[in-house]
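Dear colleague,

Following up on Tuesday's group meeting, I ran the structure prediction for the two-component complex that the binding team flagged. I've pasted the input sequences exactly as they went in, so you can double-check that nothing got truncated or mislabelled along the way. The structure tokens for the whole assembly follow below. Feel free to forward this to whoever is handling the docking comparison.

Inputs:
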Amino acid sequence: MGMEIAMIDRDPLSRVLHIDLSRRRFWIVDRRDLFEKRLGGAGVAINLLSEECPKGGDPFSPDNPIVLAVGPLTGVFPIASKTVAMFKSPHISNLGESHAGGRSAVSIRMAGYGAIVVKGASPNPIYLVVESGKVHFRNASALWGMTSFTAGRAIREKEPGPGIRTIMRIGRAGERLVRYACVITETYRHFGRLGLGTVFGSKKLKAIMVTGKRSLKVNDIVQYRKVYGEIFESLASSPAMRKYHDLGTAMNVSALNELGALPTRNLEKARFESAHEITGERFAESHLGRRIACAHCPTSCIHLAALREPYETERYFYKTRMVCYDYEPIYSLGAMIGVSSTEGLLKLFDEAEALGLDAISAGVTLAWATEALQKSLISDRETAGLKLQWGDHETYLKALRHITDQPNDFYRALAKGVEHASSVYGGVDFALAFGGNEMPGYHTGPSAYAGYMTGARHSHLDSAGYGIDQKFQTLGGKPTADAIAEALLSEESWRQVLSSLVICYFGREIYIVDTVLKALRLVGYTFTPDDLLKLGREVLKAKYAFKTREGFDFRKLRIPRRILETATPLGRISESLIPETIQSYSTKLRS
Amino acid sequence: MFACSRRFGEAGLGKSAIHVRSAGGVERGFVVIVCRACEDPPCMKVCPTDALDKRVRGGGVILNVDKCIGCGNCAEACTIGAIFWDEETNKPSICVHCGLCVGFCPYHVLELR
């Protein structure tokens, strides 16, 4: 890195708030060293995690840290609005990383912190109120057992800061230590994957509220207003952002189905015959009640459906709930388990939200359980009488509650995900988890799967393999393992830059290298394009150093047979292609 | 809110004279709170140092920062809670009806009349 890099003087970004739940204490450490080098977000979080998480530590131990980090552009430029959470994942016993928007990032920045580290565990339920220079430890006994909605409302009504606060909370799934419990913020955004909610639950931490309102300096106000205007304009007029505004991520349902890449009924097929019933268009026409945006974003991609339901016992008596929908849950709690009614889907989403379950892992787990029941690997005895069958959303609703409450050994196993459940009951070939994490909804070809496996957080968002598959499809011909690995690595490296700046990936076509450099200069960072690319690679390597330290091994990755049996838009994936791609990726990563 | 703060040459939210909050949870939508430029402004009447002057046209007030002692009477007197507080200067943030925010509202919720 160049030598003139310097953050703006007195930028509160470098302040790291440490909170110890066991001793109910907090302190602030200045980590200018870290923020100057790594910007913020993922870059800073992986360092803090490596420092704070004991090697080989138990994810359920009080020593497991929760790291939340934002970046220098947060509160300064639009859509630098994600918070990066890192922790040791109770789901995969390795690197846990999950990102969420809402108001989380802006609130943390406006409270005057660049990162928050929570360690220890409380003997009884607790929630935190974080303000500028202050932390309150509040009793949460009365909130324990509440849905994420009710807990949020209780805190909202009791605490200050409407409009400028974030309330990150868990539902019962987190309390009951379901391995893939999520943290919900601003009612509809999620730290969804890898069990951040589980870590909250293990610490008896029901919620973290953060609030603050401060000014931030920039080093050239005229230039700042100009660059801000340019970025805002390109975001507001971008066709890509427009799509997220119009139909939201749900627009992908019909596109992926037509492509033959929509995993259906536990990936028996990659086209759902009822997909037209659950498209983004259908949701918008029948249910869309409101669109909202994360703080400091002009797009408003968050789509809320109004679900009107009659009371069973009385005529002309209705209740209406607002339910958030997105592509991923439409895939996992829709096509993947054969549910083809928008009402049924909305009820499932609402339940997953209330309980605080990761919708992707929950849906894929139900899909595996349904097939296991069909194949008689399990019986009614295991399912506690539930006749799980494709499309039966009422039964799946009950199953979501059973996964949370874990009435027997079988549901206790399901609460640990499909990797674990299939190791007990069989059905490994159709247990669709990669690196231990249930699969996202893109059966686009080998790059997608290689991406789930090589991605540092085993998410489709690590390296967007689905995009690479589609590129290869346009080009024609069979992609080689090397070409796929190269594309995955380069995409994943660049995304480390974006997630160190906590820029929403939806705006990645606007925040290209030039824009990023221009914006960074105004908050004091004089990076070169090369510095940025090096930083991306360095952060990715740091993540892998942590993963390796905690026992990750590329050679131990399991490839479920099912993904080789069901044809992708690029044809059937050959037996050897994915292992070769993983091998190539790991070699390239080390070089 | 961010646009309003930029008017004062800063990023963040510390200087904002407009506020947006949910109407009791985001599922219910949002409320924008901003000075409505009263013809007969209650805030002006409670200022002990005459730091608030009536604007010549269009209602509302102008803050004379040098006279203001930061007592907060004006913020309390505003019926709709549209006077905000700048914690850094310990003075009120009061809308001057410049309309800068309007240009950064892509969905035309705000307008300057």
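Residues 32 and 40 of chain A are 10 Å apart (CA to CA).

Cheers,
M.
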